[in-house]
Specification:
The protein is mostly helical and about 260 residues long. The protein has two domains: about 1-125, no CATH class; about 125-260, no CATH class. About 80% of the residues lie in helices and about 0% in strands. The protein has ten helices and no strands. Helix 2 packs across helix 3 and helix 6 (about 130-140) crosses helix 7. The longest helix has about 30 residues, at about 15-45. This is Membrane protein. It comes from Cellulomonas soli. Keywords: Membrane, Transmembrane, Transmembrane helix.
Length: about 260
């Protein structure tokens, strides 16, 4: 199969109603994940919970709720559907190289979330923070590893800035087929900015780990949020971030309806 054939197949997959329906289910799954993440952050902020304040903690909280294991399988299908849709976007759309790379990156992210959801549904979870520290330690063990870790941090900081800009300028409206109304737009702005702030701290931790040559400093979202919690008015900061995650969940539910699929 040559590249033209692959493009045609990808376009057919992209345009198929089932693919669109699965992508919308994926946005619902994203909304559920962010709601559970907000719950975990509130528990950490106000009750000192040891639960990981990240995707693994959110999925663990969902798994422990009534009917949670079944819900996790639905969430996994949704994320897998989004991954397939993003692959078809990367291969089959006529966008430039930047758009294709962006779609491919999202496909990897959603595939990872689908796989993690399956692990939790099967009762075999692993902390995201542990994976982040192991990844950093492995990277630093190679020549030039500190520069690579710093590069990862710089990329994450760039993604963080992108989220803040996209939220503040309402750039996310370009992802929707029509204006969804202020009850989706306002949460979308707050949600994207809150995610950007959290990712910014994650990126800063990677840079700090590279600077100090200490892989244990490069935690993921859990470490970033706990770093915020250790600051003056940390409880209030985490509460605001939790509100931002709730807002992003509301936007995700709105996007499930208005997404340009």
């Amino acid at each position: 199969m040559n590249s033209a054939d692959m493009t045609r197949v990808a376009r057919r997959v992209n345009d198929h109603p089932t693919t669109g329906a699965l992508a919308r289910l994926g946005y619902v799954a994203s909304g559920v994940l962010h709601l559970m993440l907000a719950l975990v952050v509130v528990q950490v902020a106000w009750f000192g919970s040891v639960t990981s304040a990240d995707q693994s903690g959110a999925l663990g909280a969902l798994a422990s709720s009534p009917g949670g294991r079944a819900a996790l399988w639905v969430v996994a299908v949704g994320f897998a559907g989004l991954a397939v849709w993003q692959v078809s976007e990367a291969v089959g759309t006529g966008g430039g190289a930047g758009a294709r790379v962006k779609a491919a990156s999202k496909a990897v992210l959603y595939a990872a979330l689908a796989w993690t959801s399956v692990q939790f549904a099967q009762g075999a979870p692993r902390s995201s923070g542990e994976q982040s520290r192991d990844f950093t330690a492995e990277l630093m063990s190679h020549q030039g590893g500190r520069f690579a870790v710093a590069g990862v941090g710089a990329v994450v900081l760039g993604v963080a800035a992108y989220h803040v800009h996209k939220g503040w300028t309402r750039g996310f409206l370009r992802d929707l087929r029509e204006h969804p109304g202020r009850f989706v737009v306002a949460p979308g702005r707050l949600g994207y900015v809150a995610k950007g702030v959290a990712l910014g701290v994650v990126g800063a931790l990677f840079v700090a780990a590279a600077w100090h040559a200490r892989p244990d400093e490069a935690g993921g979202l859990d470490a970033a949020l706990r770093t915020l919690g250790d600051q003056p008015f940390g409880t209030a900061l985490l509460t605001v971030v939790a509100a931002g995650f709730v807002a992003y969940a509301v936007y995700s539910f709105g996007r499930a309806r208005y997404a340009r699929t």
